[in-house]
Design brief:
By secondary structure, the protein is of the alpha+beta class. Helices cover 28% and strands 25% of the residues. Strand 2 and strand 3 form a beta hairpin. The chain binds adenosine monophosphate (AMP). Adenosine monophosphate (AMP) binds next to helix 13.
Length: 468
């Protein structure tokens, strides 16, 4: 199998709305940052499902004026997919549609199931035929087993979910209803909104803003939301588990204008910058963000330290993920495709560079050498997350531990490798303070912070069996 199971994604669902698919396009467009590799929409008109899935960006995939012609109906779900493994096989593009014993169903998933390969192995032995390498398909197969089926979609879904481990925020469309559910730990986000009596489910609230819907609340961990002709119903479907929302959603992944757990992501990022400045002060002339991800934290750092904030690095927003430098001689130029230093401004300055995270360290090394060659006299790097020492198995695509710079090097050794005069990270307690906690409760951490601690809240069954 070439594709890693699971990827970062965004999901969307709408019910009881004229032009449901057109609204879904808008919602997916607002969540494009959650996945740029592919986008898909399934709509429901009367009893008929319509499905369109394409590689590429939402605006390119659904640019046709005929979205409603292709995807008619008053209900729809959509998905944006992100995978950095290189295998973007069309079979893996969601939503998945299947005709089960219970009836036809479409499913879109954000998160990563940690026992999917184990379950898949069993299912294949029982004769199931898989069409993709996605963990989400395992869920559909579990829902497909008629002998374990007790009647309703709710029971069918529950039966399947009780067998899986891992992170999931799901939207599911059947002939009779739109469903939304979060795993019992609430690892990945899912929010509920409303517009003119129409209910909307989305990974992030920015997808509600774009269509003038208002945020009602986060879907609770383990909660099943059912939206049908009679309105919206909520029930706790799954056994309660300690709440473990992914803290990295605040640091990097979510859009800064989204609201998670009642918190403004932007404000949390500024708070991180403030605590970063409090914990790791340094004398300098200017605070410079690595755009765009470092901007809110740099603003917070500048505000707390009193050191001016300035855009010392400019980002080109038109660089697609797939841009390939055309010839070897151009590649050798080391072109600054994405970032360019604001030379006149950086010259002779002592610079504090702020970024959200260091993963492999390649971005930091590039940026620091760029800032130095632009004439900065000192470069101090401040990072708005603790050192990333462990891979994520719950839906954020981090490389294997071997490739994580902080997994193998001390902060001092990292500073030398990156080429900075000093390097410092926000502490774990500082991070928890930034999201409104008094600190990290070491006995029962309030968030999933496994990428910084190795403290994985949900069993890694496939990893333990060396299946990934
Ligand atoms: P690296 O060059 O590998 O150290 O990557 C660090 C940069 O990648 C940071 O500036 C982040 O903005 C960005 N980043 C962090 N985590 C992720 C992720 N899971 N997916 C994509 N980009 C990321």
């Amino acid at each position: 199998m070439t594709d890693r199971l699971g990827e970062e994604c965004g999901v969307f669902g709408i019910w009881g709305c004229e032009e449901a698919a057109a609204h879904t396009v808008l919602g997916l467009h607002a969540m494009q940052h959650r996945g740029q590799e592919a986008a898909g929409i399934v709509s429901l008109q009367n009893d008929t499902f319509h499905c369109q899935k394409h590689a590429g960006l939402v605006g390119d995939a659904f640019s046709s004026e005929d979205v409603m012609g292709q995807l008619p109906g008053m209900a729809a779900i959509g998905h944006v997919r992100y995978s950095t493994t290189g295998d973007s096989s069309p079979q893996n593009i969601q939503p998945f549609y299947a005709e089960l014993f219970t009836g036809p169903v479409a499913l879109a998933h954000n998160g990563n199931l940690t026992n999917a390969l184990t379950l898949r192995h069993d299912l294949v032995q029982k004769g199931h035929i898989f069409h993709s390498s996605s963990d989400t398909e395992v869920l559909l197969h579990l829902m497909a087993r008629p002998q374990e089926f007790s009647g309703s979609w709710k029971e069918t879904l529950k039966h399947a979910l009780l067998q899986i481990e891992g992170a999931y925020s799901l939207v599911m469309l059947t002939r009779g209803a739109l469903y939304g559910i979060r795993d019992p730990w609430g690892l990945r986000p899912l929010v509920l909104g409303q517009r003119n009596g129409t209910f909307v489910l989305a990974s992030e609230s920015c997808a509600l803003d774009i269509m003038g819907a208002t945020l009602i609340r986060d879907v609770a961990p383990g909660e099943l939301i059912t939206i049908d002709a009679s309105g919206m119903k909520s029930e706790i479907l799954l056994p309660k588990a300690p709440s473990k929302f992914c803290i990295f959603e605040y640091i990097y992944f979510s859009r800064p204008d989204s609201v998670l757990e009642g918190n403004s992501v932007y404000e949390v990022r500024k708070n991180i910058g403030r605590y970063l400045a409090e914990e790791n002060p340094v004398a300098a002339d200017v605070v410079v963000p690595v755009p765009d991800s470092g901007v809110p934290a740099a603003l917070g750092y500048a505000e707390h330290s009193g050191i001016p904030f300035d855009l010392g690095i400019i980002r080109n927003h038109y660089v697609g993920r797939t841009f390939i430098e055309p010839t070897q001689s151009i590649r050798l130029l080391g072109v600054k495709l994405k970032h360019n230093p604001n030379k006149m401004f950086l010259q002779g300055k002592r610079v504090i560079l702020v970024d959200d995270s260091i993963v492999r360290g390649t971005t930091s090394m590039k940026i620091v050498s760029m800032v130095r060659s632009a004439g900065a006299t000192e470069v101090h790097m401040r990072i708005a997350s603790p050192p990333t020492t462990h891979s994520c198995f719950y839906g954020v695509d981090t490389p294997s531990r071997d490739h994580l710079m902080a997994a193998h090097l001390s902060t001092q050794a990292m500073a030398e490798k990156i080429g900075v005069d000093s390097l410092a990270f926000i502490s774990l307690d500082g991070l928890y303070r930034a999201v409104g906690q008094s600190g990290r409760d070491a006995a029962v951490p309030q968030y999933c912070d496994a990428c910084f601690t190795g403290d994985y809240p949900i069993p890694l069954t496939d990893v333990a069996k060396c299946l990934v």
